Amino acid sequence: MVDIKALVDVENGTQSRRIFWERDIYELELERIFARCWLFLTHESQIPNYGDFFVTKMGEDEVVVIRQKDGSIGAFLNQCRHRGMKLCMAEAGNARAFSCAYHGWAYGVDGTLKSVPCEKESYGPDFDKAQWGLHPVAKVESYKGFIFGCMDAAAPSLVDYLGDAAWYMDIWAGVPGGIEFLGPPSRSIIRSNWKSPPENFIGDSYHVGWTHAGVLKAMTGEVMPQLAFASKDAGFQVTTRYGHGHGINWGPGPILMSPNCPDLFEWTERRGVEMEAIVGEKASKLYSRHWDGTLFPNCSYLIGTYVFKAWHPIGPDKVEIMTWAFAEKDMSDDLKHRIKVAAHRVFGPAGILESDDIDNFEYIALPNQGHVTRQGKMNLQMGMGREREEADYPGVIGDFLSEHGQRGLYRSWADCMSSANWAELEAKTASWKQDLLRKKKV
Amino acid sequence: MPSKEDPKMPEQRPVAMELHHEITQFLHREARLLDSDLLRDWLTTMVDREIRYQLVIRDERYRKDKSPDADREIMPFDDDYTILDLRVRQFETGMQTMLDPGQQMFRVVSNVEAFHNDSEGEFTVLSYGTVSRFRRVYENERSVYGRRDVLRRGEDGQLRLLSRRVVLGGRVVRSKNLLFFL
Ligand code: FES
Ligand SMILES: [Fe+2]
Known about the structure:
The structure holds two protein chains of two kinds. Chain A is of the alpha+beta class. Chain A has two domains: 4-34 and 164-436, Naphthalene 1,2-dioxygenase Alpha Subunit, Chain A, domain 1; 39-143, 3-layer Sandwich (Rieske Iron-sulfur Protein). Chain A has helices spanning 4-7, 23-34, 119-123, 158-162, 165-173, 196-201, 208-211, 213-220, 263-279, 281-284, 333-347, 354-365, 371-374, 404-417, 422-429, 432-438, and strands at 8-9, 14-16, 39-43, 52-58, 61-67, 73-77, 92-94, 97-99, 106-108, 113-115, 139-143, 146-150, 179-190, 235-239, 245-252, 289-295, 299-303, 307-313, 319-328, 377-379, 388-390, 393-399. The longest helix of chain A has 17 residues, at 263-279. The radius of gyration of chain A is 22 Å and the shape is globular. Chain B has four helices and six strands. Chain B has a six-stranded mixed sheet. The model of chain B has no long low-confidence stretch (mean pLDDT 94). The longest helix of chain B has 19 residues, at 17-35. Chain B has a single domain, classed as Nuclear Transport Factor 2, Chain: A (Roll). In chain B, strand 5 and strand 6 form a beta hairpin. The chains are: A alpha+beta, B alpha+beta. At the A-B interface, strand 7, strand 13, helix 8, helix 11 and helix 12 of A face helix 3, strand 2 and helix 4 of B. Residues 200, 207, 211-212, 353, 357 of chain A line the site of fe (ii) ion.
């Protein structure tokens, strides 16, 4: 049995390196995190019409997400029920049926088994096709156009799972007209543990002025001191019950898009004012700022940079990254096109910032080959003891230059991994806020 | 050439042997400058100010899918001269921890075909390439690509790269990043 307390010390903000390498821990993650939590599948704008589909992963389970006739969304394991072959070989498209390449069993977009070649002649009259439909994902819901799936029927609703994070999501995803994803995702496989990228995106403001010093200097002409984010005016971090978190920086949002999309500054200023009527004054002030964020366990985004990412584990030592550019539906086609190009330019596979990050993610994982190295622990103690509530912002707040969000991610990791089911997890996290605020003394 | 454009090139005249040689030498020189980290030299001496530089990856769909390319392509690069210059400046800062120690790269260019374009002094050039990158002692990655370039002869008589469309082999990038020019 994996001893979770020995792996993540929530009280002290440390983590064992073993959780970034060992197979038995990883298998438990697949069961207790990926087969239990709500996971991002795709965005509604990627499958707008009846029969549109997108193939993605939930943990290492491949799923097909399909727009149904009534406009709802279904998701199914991407595997034929006959001899288990992978069913849909395309990654996206439009279909009225999916037929298996092996013997030709064909399924409808609703997952039902529609036809079996030579059915009467081979199986006889009593074969019950209704028993052999595609395996459905237990729950599929969408929030502001973002479609999530959950393998655990006992999970709370998506909006409850998002919790305080929904308030933040409303600010950028609740814009009039909504959000649109621009084209297919770029995809790459890196040699890292799946937790390192979302951990970085949830709030690692610390690395920005160091890891990205070169590109920031090339873009702005100046070296950004790491100290710049230490100011109380730099922004703040948030953590929530199930580990979702944000780092919100008071700097202007579209800063990294400025070479091609200078008009975004004006767009976000104007839109920020419009958002006042929709989300209220306090929330609307965040709209035009730069944020990073992660929804536990494995999707992240950058607001202002128009990048949305899913991090799919492939074993304990590899991650497949899917990166989409997104825009607001109300933007002009010309601006959307420029955003698509600019977003991949910074955080696609040839991304001028992404490339710096990937090397870090890989070399956090690789040293864990060493037995002695692996027994060591890692430190996320920055800003411990400064957790607080703030009247204007939901969740528990921490300093912008801190590891507050990252600690939240591992708190949630430990909660999930030490719970046998959702009932236990909900009970364990019921007083999360008080527990966290009580921990102020280091 | 794995491009959606007409692979048969029916309208276009192949260039004569001497011009073909000049073009091939151009591609080899490019590879040498890029492999040698002489990015600024490459940019200023071999790239036209009106450059459009693209690297394209397409998603994988069933053959019957008729979605327009624009809906299916991701462009890790879609750069004009100012952006190429920005990318070169990123390397020039010397501040990328990712590139210290330096890395070794070897670009191999092959299957070069060249055709006259309608406008005088412009040529469409097709080629294949592989690039191997060695770094951090153990890393050894390779990318395979096809290119469709347009070269233009400038007033100084030199060929320069006017447009480049690189089609990368493989849907999923497996080589850490593509932070290099092809
Ligand atoms: S495995 Fe799919 S039809 Fe036989
Ligand atoms: Fe980064």
